[in-house]
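dumping this here before i forget
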Amino acid sequence: MQTRSSQGDRVDEAQHLQQSLEALRTLYRAVRELNSVRDLTATLQTVADSVVSSLGFGAAAVNLVHGGELQIVAVAGPEAVRESLNGQSGSRQSWEELLDRAQQWGSLRYLPMEHPIGDVPMWRPENGQPTDPDPDAWQPEDVLMAPLYSADGELVGVLSVDLPEGGRKPGKDQCELLEMFAAQAAIAIDNARLHWALRRSVAELEREQQLLRASEESFRLAFENAPSGMAMRGLRPPAEGRLLRVNAALCNLLGYSERELRRDGLTAFTHPEDRDLLPEGETARRIEVRFIRGDASVLWASVHCSVVYDAGGNADFQLIHVEDVSERRSRELALVHQAAHDPLTGLANRTELRSRLYEILGHAEPVVVMFCDMDNFKQVNDTYGHAAGDAVLVEVGRRLRQHVREHDTVARVGGDEFVLLVRDLDPEAAGDLVTRLTTAVSRPVEYEGFEIKVSASIGLGTAVPASTVDELLREADQAMYREKWERARRKADIHRVSHG
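structure:
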């Protein structure tokens, strides 16, 4: 004979089963409605609406990942909730920190009201004080969130819910329903995003194809009459890699006939050092390369390549636009030269000198530094004027340059100071070079009928292991001053003897 207690247990089990079935039917209806939507905006709003209409929450918001932020893109619930949340956004980092701090309720995340939420947008009622001391009561600033992940595990958004029915924290069954719905919502959102991107791509492709078909004759005229060089390179057999067409401007720019260009291709006329830069195949980008023109001169050109597709969406040919940028390149090179060279003598300046010396020492190459200082140069300026002084400096720089090799460096580092970097020179040869340079500099300089007498003192510095740029320059500078002092002393001795 069954007891009254066992009969009651079966009734409770039947009621619980009935409630679970009804909850599953509710979830099924919500998911079916969700999956029937294809538009991304409508899908997002359906997610929020379904939570409120079917899952027992009074408010819901969908936060969608957009770059470094999560933006609220759909809200359901009371007017106050919608007005507070619509259009709000929070940083992705803040969201991730919030999800990490929250309690894990399965795949859901719960944060009690006493925890800060940072700059993450959440609805807060005007009265944010606890309304019920019961620990199972839902407090005004409690937060429940369902992270939304795509099939490959990428976070696509967060579904946040509020105002659970009955003012109680959601139970196990309600949380499980929310978890299942969130998983389906994430898939639906991801599918809607892909569908939207696909539709946009297809629409764009159709528009481009229509424009291409409608403007074929206009394209031909524009191509042939373009003021800058144009070429078409095939991307499909049997013309793959060959120039299908070139315009007159390109022939004039490069100095070759249409037959020569179509027969040999642009690569044949590209500077050898730049040939690997030319885009091949279905590549669209902009580069600058050098071409060898028909008269053997070098042309700097900006080359822009883009791919043109046929009506079927297949790569048809590569459109190549060639523009002469030689003048701009020349200006850039001139600016680079000015930044590294003395404007009066054209020699390297102090910055360039130090850069070259750093490079030499970095490769542990033997180098001799010669510091050359003009003797009594102020008298030249005082006697003949600054224009004459400038002429003397230019001539002295030219003479110094004449007596060293092409790969050596002569720099003007001050008013009448020069520094020479001479590589691969033994001490004896360095001494001989100093003698030759001193002799060359000491020849009079002719200026407007005057013979201006000049002389210079030259000091040597030699690189040794662990030498630094400053040490080497300082050594040469000190050697120059010793030479200048020694020369003054010898001159004084001679003067004393001659008047003794």
